[in-house]
């Protein structure tokens, strides 16, 4: 039987903590030299008061010791807390200078906390600093939440084959809270360190410190929110040319499994990071896909080899990791490029990272299942054992992964059909559904492509996409 009191208690504490965090963008607005922007502090003050009162009240009403949280309660806690945080995180966005309706604010907050990066905000160049920072903070909080969830909840629930990453340290019972707390702190420190290094690197390569801070928060989290309408492309002047390469490095780092990074840091076992099957497959796929689209861009766009490689590695990394930054409108590269980027948006990064999508390990498991099936056809009496990172894969892992593929694409198709029913054209409906469930951000086409946004979509479409973002991030 589920125990709801601990769940309500933790959600209340998280919502109250979110309210306290709203004081940071409130102070940023108060320090603004623009009178109109300075007035936006009241939106965050209102949001902070409501969140602290509601969260504090829920926590007080359910106060008591938490001796254990089962994995089922852990999943309920994860899903319910994510939704609750979005509901309250949207309040300052709806009441502020951005002039968003609550549905738009809810969409923006969901996009932030799920690190999707799809936006309905028009005029980012002139937006108040507090709102810009809040969007970035939401993605940063969402990124670390995803990492913790990947190690504390999903393996224990055997979601989509995640049981192959179950840590023996907390595999002794149905409880995960003690070890989850220890791991969460360690993983959060690594996450914070990478963010700090990213900030310093962006600043060192010419990005103004304010923009460097925001982009550091949204790069390591592979979220993709920017402070400019032109996204990262707005900063690629001659003097700041290497910025896209710096961002590429940190998008890749954010897409690596933080658990293995933690082991490498604690034990000095850096070799394990590069011998891990998932990491090698992910990086190899990045190299191959970059080469393919670079060759296409070189021949199609009549540009130099270096420029083609540069555009390719950035955009492939951005879309495949689900970050969603844009330095160029790849919609204009032709139908082959559109089909290419639509296909790779589903792949994602490594399990246990801030990245999104289906995760490369599931493709590895599916390939292993195909190999086993083919070998059994050739040798019916042979005993064939598939392995992943040297460990045997059981049938329940195969079933879990293949079931995940089915549910994933069934959900994608359902959302796409529903969006078409709301009047969206085929390309917009397909790419919006794919981008939402894969937590990528930009879609394809003139409306929601790299040069557009989601502002013009009907409210029902935004709510559908918000649901898709949450389902994709929680991995069902």
From TrEMBL:
Record keywords: Cell membrane, Ion transport, Membrane, Potassium, Potassium transport, Transmembrane, Transmembrane helix, Transport
Transmembrane segments: 7-31, 43-63, 75-94, 137-157, 183-205, 245-267, 279-298, 332-352, 397-419
Cell inner membrane listed as a keyword: no
Segment forming the signal sequence: none
GO function terms (MF aspect): potassium:chloride symporter activity
Any one GO cellular component localisation term in the record: plasma membrane
InterPro entries per the UniProt record, alphabetical: Cat_transpt (IPR003445), TrkH (IPR004772)
Location(s), subcellular: Cell membrane
Parts forming coiled coils: none
Major location category of this protein: membrane
Membrane topology label: Multi-pass membrane protein
Keyword flag Acetylation: no
Designated name of the protein: Trk potassium uptake system protein TrkH
Organism: hydrothermal vent metagenome
């Amino acid at each position: 039987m589920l125990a709801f009191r601990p769940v309500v208690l933790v959600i209340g504490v998280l919502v109250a903590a979110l309210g306290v965090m709203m004081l940071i963008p409130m102070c940023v607005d108060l320090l603004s030299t623009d009178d109109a922007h300075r007035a936006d502090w009241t939106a965050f003050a209102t949001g902070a008061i409501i969140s602290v009162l509601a969260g504090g009240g829920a926590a007080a009403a359910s106060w008591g010791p938490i001796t254990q949280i089962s994995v089922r309660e852990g999943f309920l806690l994860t899903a319910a807390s994510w939704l609750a945080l979005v509901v309250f995180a949207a309040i300052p966005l709806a009441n502020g200078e951005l002039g968003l309706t609550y549905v738009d604010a809810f969409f923006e907050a969901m996009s932030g906390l799920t690190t999707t990066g799809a936006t309905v905000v028009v005029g980012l160049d002139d937006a108040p600093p507090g709102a810009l920072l809040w969007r970035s903070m939401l993605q940063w909080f969402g990124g670390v939440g995803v990492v913790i969830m990947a190690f504390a909840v999903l393996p224990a629930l055997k979601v989509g084959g995640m049981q192959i990453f179950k840590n023996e340290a907390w595999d002794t019972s149905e409880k995960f809270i003690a070890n989850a707390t220890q791991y969460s702190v360690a993983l959060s420190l690594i996450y914070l360190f990478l963010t700090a290094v990213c900030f310093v690197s962006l600043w060192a390569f010419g990005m103004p410190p304010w923009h460097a801070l925001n982009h550091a928060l949204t790069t390591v989290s592979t979220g993709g929110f920017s402070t400019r309408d032109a996204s990262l492309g707005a900063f690629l002047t001659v003097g700041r040319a290497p910025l896209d390469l710096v961002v590429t490095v940190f998008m890749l780092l954010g897409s690596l499994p933080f658990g293995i990074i933690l082991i490498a840091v604690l034990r000095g076992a850096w070799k394990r990071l590069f011998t891990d099957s998932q990491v090698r497959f992910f990086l190899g796929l990045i190299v191959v896909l970059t080469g393919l689209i670079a060759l296409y861009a070189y021949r199609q766009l009549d540009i130099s080899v270096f420029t083609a490689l540069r555009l390719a590695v950035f955009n492939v990394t951005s879309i495949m990791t689900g970050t969603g930054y844009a330095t160029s409108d790849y919609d204009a590269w032709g139908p082959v490029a559109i089909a290419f980027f639509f296909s790779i948006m589903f792949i994602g990064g490594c399990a246990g990272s801030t990245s999104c999508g289906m995760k490369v390990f599931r493709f590895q498991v599916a390939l292993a299942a195909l190999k086993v099936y083919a070998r059994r056809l050739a040798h019916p009496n042979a005993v064939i054992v598939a392995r992943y990172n040297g460990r045997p894969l059981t049938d329940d892992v195969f079933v879990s992964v293949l079931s995940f593929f089915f549910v994933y694409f069934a959900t994608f198709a359902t959302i796409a059909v529903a969006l078409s029913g709301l009047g969206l054209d085929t390309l917009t409906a397909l790419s919006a559904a794919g981008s939402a469930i894969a937590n990528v951000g930009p879609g394809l086409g003139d409306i929601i492509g790299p040069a557009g946004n989601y502002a013009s979509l009907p409210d029902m479409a935004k709510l559908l996409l918000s649901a898709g973002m949450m389902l994709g991030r929680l991995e069902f």
